[in-house]
């Protein structure tokens, strides 16, 4: 059996801890001041590390933010699999509405979207993360519903995903209007109706 | 008849021209560098005026941007009135999709949304503009469709407006995915179906 040389476990843990501390500091700073005003100094101060600890990992602010955001966005959200399309749709819309009401998400997403409109690298990273997630929703939820005969054969997964995510994003992240008592229930009924009518 | 004292017409026109030049410069700067990095100096340079011309009108950057953006957002977009809900919906979604693909809108809106998450005054101004527009759409389009018997009595205008604006905003301003050939047509069919099923 080949033996593998390892760094002492303590050092690895410490190095990992520092990375976690920096990642959390970046997310907090993004929420508080936004990408434009985020500084390596402030991230280091908040993480309780020296600036060299950051420059050892990333060569500049853009690289640091892109890697951390891709990483956070890429942790795949588990997709609901309740056995029926009605159940999956309800659970997914509940998860999305909770996520969009989270302080960190509700401040970081619009800020990075704004940067994306001026910075092609940020745009590409975000779009890749979004599209991967969108495709997963489209392929799995809509695909399964078609296979079960709950949605028509010709249902367009792109239209479906936009109908599921768009209204909640618009209301919570753009218009920033709180969901009323029976809003979510009405929206779910409407979206289910839309998808049955969509082809 | 009372006589009204007026400034010479030439001066008024010139003053109006300068305001227009400043307004255009603010919108261009917002699109290019965003609110956070926008400076009075750059606006003055782009408008071809002195900084005093700006400070004569507004006491600071926030006040200037809020007044100009409210003004632009407040110019009421004419709502479609084609005589049928299907026609109104189609025309409205076409107008919204064109507007969201306009360079200025697609850069300024996400940027101000991002600022809004950190600045309550910006948030309030934007939300007021958005809600006024949303309510106009809900009251007129949905109200008329209910009156004509094209939508069920209980149709919720808030859910309806979110379904009309959300998917397009999500796709064009967030995921930034181009509309495919028959995307808009499919989305319109789906939204019409959603609204008929929504109550």
Automatic annotation (TrEMBL), chains A, B:
PROSITE patterns with a match to the protein in the record: HTH_TETR_1, HTH_TETR_2
Gene3D superfamilies: Homeodomain-like (1.10.10.60), Tetracycline Repressor, domain 2 (1.10.357.10)
Positions in coiled-coil regions: none
The organism's place on the tree of life at top rank: Bacteria
Entry annotated with the keyword Transcription: yes
TM region positions: none
Keywords: DNA-binding, Transcription, Transcription regulation
Keyword Transcription: yes
UniProt DNA-binding residue ranges: 39-58
Residue ranges of domain HTH tetR-type in the record: 16-76
Pfam family, one: TetR_C_11
PANTHER family: HTH-TYPE TRANSCRIPTIONAL REGULATOR RUTR (PTHR30055), TETR-FAMILY TRANSCRIPTIONAL REGULATOR (PTHR30055:SF148)
Protein's recorded name: TetR/AcrR family transcriptional regulator
Organism from which the protein derives: Paractinoplanes globisporus
């Amino acid at each position: 059996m080949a033996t593998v040389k390892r760094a002492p476990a303590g050092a690895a843990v410490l190095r990992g801890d520092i990375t976690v501390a920096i990642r959390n500091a970046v997310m907090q700073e993004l929420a508080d001041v936004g990408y434009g005003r985020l500084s390596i100094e402030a991230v280091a101060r908040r993480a309780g590390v020296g600036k060299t600890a950051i420059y050892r990992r990333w060569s500049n602010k853009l690289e640091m933010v892109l890697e951390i955001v891709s990483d956070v966005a890429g942790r795949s959200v588990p997709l609901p699999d309740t056995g029926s399309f009605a159940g999956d749709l309800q659970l997914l819309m509940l998860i999305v509405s909770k996520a969009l009401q989270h302080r960190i998400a509700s401040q970081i997403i619009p800020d990075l979207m704004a940067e994306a409109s001026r910075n092609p690298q940020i745009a590409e990273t975000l779009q890749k993360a979004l599209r991967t997630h969108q495709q997963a929703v489209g392929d799995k939820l809509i695909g399964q519903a078609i296979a079960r005969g709950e949605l028509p054969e010709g249902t367009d997964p792109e239209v479906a995903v936009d109908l599921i995510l768009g209204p909640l994003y618009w209301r919570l992240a753009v218009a920033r209007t709180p969901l009323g008592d029976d809003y979510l229930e009405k929206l779910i009924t409407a979206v289910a109706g839309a998808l049955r009518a969509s082809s």
